[in-house]
């Protein structure tokens, strides 16, 4: 079942491996009423971060505590608002991790659970794409673009930014690039997206008709073993088995707590002090990230508001003037000048400030012209010689 539901509460669903490989659209309750089916929820790849960490060797419980703080500096939301799902540690010691907002996961699960069904698994869409050695799988439609780069690796991106995102991913994988891209594309695109053919990697095209779910469910793949239905979001049957297995441990724990009540009270006091320290640390991070905000009332709420403004008010209201749009078009112009180096980026009040280094003033003028050619308004705030090159500060905005 592919989420989220449409405005009428209907979802797209299919049966893996069925002969017709067709997707149907029905109300959630009607789909949930199908008996004898293992329900797997497929959620949008662009809402889930798929990443990897190399944690110290520890038990599963310690890993669940450690992983959020190992990733904390690379996340835009407080770890308390995020759900972390762990995969299987690889031979290289790396641990696959999926990160999603708790509120988002609750919104996905609410209509299904309201229909009386507990999903067996919740899998990000990119991890259901075909997996072949040496091949990155891409699914492209007018509405979405999903990429699978490994067993538990991939991402979702706006279709307009697919070529740029793939280019960045290929740069990161320079040591072990894919042999080719396998691209499943909707013929509604009218033509095969030419920018992908210019990435320096062979492309194998696979046109498909119907809903993307027909590609994702063509085989009963497990999604690379990275399931969001873990911890508090695990199915009740799975949680029941865990509780039964932990009964002896829980009994000993209860005895220990009764004997150490005083020590537990002291620990609670220490935790309270730690919470105060964390609040101070959050305010410090906020001041460092957004120095232009002078009055801090609720740093978490204010940081969320600042991040939303950076995104241009969210996907639904992005009119081409938000941070992602302006930065994406600026990045394309910078990419066309290989000698350019970005030394810093600031964004505020709809304006992007870029600190760049170029070999000479001629390249600076070429960069300005190319940015303006993509519909941006560009102003050169300063330009000074630095070593054998030019250090410049540009103000960029969408008029």
Can you describe what's shown?
With 399 residues, this protein is α+β, with helices and mostly antiparallel strands. The protein has 3 domains: 245 residues, Nucleotidyltransferase, domain 5 (2-Layer Sandwich); 64 residues, no CATH class; 75 residues, Gyrase A, domain 2 (2-Layer Sandwich). Helix content is 35%, strand content 24%. Strands 10-9-8-11-12 form a 5-stranded mixed sheet, covered by helices on one side. It starts with 9 loop residues before the first strand and ends with a strand.
Write the layout of secondary structure elements.
Elements: E1 10-13, E2 24-27, H1 28-32, E3 40-43, E4 49-53, H2 60-71, E5 82-86, E6 95-101, H3 102-114, E7 121-124, E8 135-140, E9 145-150, E10 153-157, H4 162-172, E11 180-185, H5 194-197, E12 202-207, H6 213-216, H7 236-245, H8 247-259, H9 261-289, H10 299-310, H11 323-335, E13 341-348, E14 351-358, H12 361-373, E15 377-386, E16 389-397
Parallel strand pairs: 3-7, 8-11, 11-12
Antiparallel strand pairs: 1-2, 4-6, 5-6, 8-9, 9-10, 13-14, 14-16, 15-16
